[in-house]
Amino acid sequence: MELEKIHCGDALKLVGHLPDESVDLIVCDGPYGVTDQDWDRIGDIQTYNLELLRTFSRVLKPGGAMYLFGKEDCIDFIDYRPYLKLNARIVWYQPSRLAQGRTNYTNNYDLICYFSKGKAKTFNLDDIRVPQLVELEHRLRCERVPSVQNGTYGKTRFNEAGKNPGDVWGDIKQLTYKSKELISRDLLNTIQKPERLIDRLVRASSNEGDLVLDPFSGVGTTWAVCRRLKRSFIGFEMNSEYIRIADERIAAIDRAAEYELFT
Ligand SMILES: C[S@@+](CC[C@H](N)C(=O)[O-])C[C@H]1O[C@@H](n2cnc3c(N)ncnc32)[C@H](O)[C@@H]1O
Prior knowledge:
The chain is of the alpha/beta class. The protein has two domains: about 5-125 and about 165-260, Rossmann fold (3-Layer(aba) Sandwich); about 130-165, no CATH class. It is about 25% helix and about 20% strand. It has six helices and ten strands; from the N terminus they run βαβαβββαβββαβαβα. An eight-stranded mixed sheet has the order 1-10-9-2-3-5-4-8, sandwiched between helices. Helix 5 runs parallel beside helix 6. The two termini are about 35 Å apart. The structure holds S-adenosylmethionine (SAM).
């Protein structure tokens, strides 16, 4: 299958053309099963996600990673363990979500389930560090912190380059209608993800030259990030208009890179 391209069609069928264990990273931002969009009406989301995990795990290299996006219950009560190892459930926290519930606590996060095929071969922590809290800096100066493991007192290592982002990410905002990178208002909330979010996943779980698969490419956010980070890319998407937008997006990135090279 041709690389550096989004192939048009059903991801679950197209993936059959990829060889076993050929992909380093899968960014899977497909149906959530919560909206009225045709492509999001998939019946039982957990059954659907189990099928995705089973099908896509075949093409993942040993040690490769897969990130599955969804709502808080997206992998509840399903047994993914024969296929992949769950390393973390990342909470992508969006406190400024406007819709407000009246009968329950408003859901204000998405889940990004971080799987790997066996032990993850790549986790580039130094490429995704986030600023240390000032509070921690203060604590390190004036107190010694007991270890949670065995209670012994020792100095926590303070890394000037920043800390592990942890598994609750509140530092990356969902796009708004004012975001410069938003392609069109129609894509708000259900389609386009912020490049910063995908950038963190790609930096953490792949290296230059690795192959990244996005089976639900939308308007090509993962492709755009991969292009900038020098990862190889292959995508699937059923909506040809979104593929056209993604192609334009990549062409603009290439033009900007060429311009930079010659100035
Ligand atoms: C949440 S969006 C992905 C958005 C993408 N991350 C971006 O930033 O542009 C999900 C996409 O999956 C596509 N899609 C849904 N079911 C599909 C299927 N079975 N095969 C291929 N594409 C599908 C939809 O058309 C939609 O564009």
